[in-house]
From TrEMBL:
The gene is lolD. It is an enzyme of class 7 (translocase). This is Lipoprotein-releasing system ATP-binding protein LolD. GO terms for cellular component: plasma membrane. The complex is composed of two ATP-binding proteins (LolD) and two transmembrane proteins (LolC and LolE). It is a peripheral membrane protein. It comes from Parashewanella spongiae. Keywords: ATP-binding, Cell inner membrane, Cell membrane, Lipoprotein, Membrane, Nucleotide-binding, Translocase, Transport. NCBIfam families: LolD_lipo_ex (TIGR02211). It is found in: Cell inner membrane.
Length: 240
C-alpha cells in the first residue's frame, strides 16, 4: 500500500533571541510523517523536542522553513483556518493536561466534538465510550480537581482523539501513568493507527513506549536523526 504523507517538515529552523544572544534550537529539520505511522521523538532535556512539536501543531512559528499538513502550508494559513485545523485535523496531548476545571471528565472529552458542531448527546456518548475504553467508567462525572494526575492524563488523551484527528501530537503522554495505564494508552494508539490511519508523533522519555513505536528519532544538536537505539540506550536519554 502506498504511504500517504500527512505532515511534511521542510528545512525548519527555530532560534530564540534574548538581547544579543541567539539560541538556535532547530537547525534544518526535515521529516515526513505518514498516515497511520507511530513516531517517537527522543532526546535530552532542552534539545528542542517540544519546540518542534509546537511547530508541527501551528502553536509556534518556525524562524524559517515549512510545515505542511496534507500539502497545506500551515504558516500561510489564516488564523481562522489554523483554528479549524487544530480542532479538526490535529489532536494534542500536553504534559500538563489543560482540562477545563469546571467541566466533568465526559464534558471535557466531548468539548472538541461540540466545538465542531456534533450534536450534544452524540458527542457525550462518544466521549463516554472513550473514557470507558481507558478504564474511567467510574469517573465520568468527576471534575478534574476530583481526579488523580494519571486519571486527568487519560481524560486529556481521549479528548485529543474524539474528533478522529489525522495526526496526534503528544508531549510525554504517559508521563504520569503507571505501567498498566501506559500499556492501555499504547494499545489505544495502536488501534487508532491501524483502524483510522491516525498518525502519532510522540515526544517521550518513556523508553518502553518509544521502543514500541514504528520509528524512533533522536533530537540532537538541533537535528533529527533516525536511531536504532533499543530499550537500554533510550533509558539513558530518559534520565530527565
Ligand atoms: N520561548 C522561549 N524563549 C527562549 N528560549 C526558549 C523558549 N522556548 C524554549 N526555549 C529554549 O529552547 C530549548 C529547547 O526547548 P524545548 O522545550 O523544545 O526542549 P525539550 O527537548 O522539549 O525539553 P524537555 O525534554 O525538558 O521538555 C531550551 O534550551 C529552551 O530553554
Amino acid at each position: 500500500m502506498k504511504q500517504q504523507a500527512i505532515l511534511e517538515i521542510e528545512n525548519v529552523c527555530k532560534s530564540y533571541h534574548d538581547g544579543d544572544v541567539t539560541t538556535q534550537v532547530l537547525k534544518n529539520v526535515n521529516l515526513t510523517v505518514y498516515s497511520g505511522e507511530q513516531l517517537a521523538i527522543v532526546g535530552s532535556s532542552g534539545s528542542g523536542k517540544s519546540t518542534l512539536l509546537h511547530i508541527m501543531g501551528t502553536l509556534d512559528k518556525p524562524t524559517s522553513g515549512k510545515a505542511m499538513l496534507e500539502g497545506e502550508d500551515l504558516y500561510q494559513a489564516t488564523a481562522a483556518r489554523k483554528n479549524q485545523i487544530r480542532n479538526q485535523d490535529l489532536g494534542f496531548i500536553y504534559q500538563f493536561h489543560h482540562l477545563l476545571p469546571e467541566f466533568s471528565a465526559v464534558e471535557n472529552v466531548a468539548m472538541p466534538a461540540l466545538i465542531q458542531g456534533v450534536n450534544r448527546s452524540h458527542a457525550l456518548e462518544k466521549a463516554k465510550k472513550l473514557l470507558v475504553r481507558v478504564g474511567l467508567s467510574h469517573r465520568l462525572n468527576h471534575i478534574p480537581a476530583e481526579l488523580s494526575g494519571g486519571e486527568r492524563q487519560r481524560v486529556a488523551i481521549v479528548r485529543a482523539l474524539i474528533n478522529s484527528p489525522k495526526l496526534v501530537l503528544a508531549d510525554e503522554p504517559t508521563g504520569n501513568l503507571d505501567a498498566k495505564s501506559g500499556e492501555t494508552i499504547y494499545q489505544l494508539i495502536q488501534e487508532l493507527a491501524e483502524q483510522l490511519g491516525t498518525a502519532f508523533v510522540v515526544v517521550t522519555h518513556d523508553n518502553q513506549l518509544a521502543s514500541k513505536m514504528d520509528r524512533q528519532l533522536q533530537m540532537k544538536d538541533g537535528s533529527l536523526q533516525e536511531t536504532t537505539l533499543q530499550h537500554n540506550e533510550l533509558a539513558v536519554e530518559g534520565a530527565n
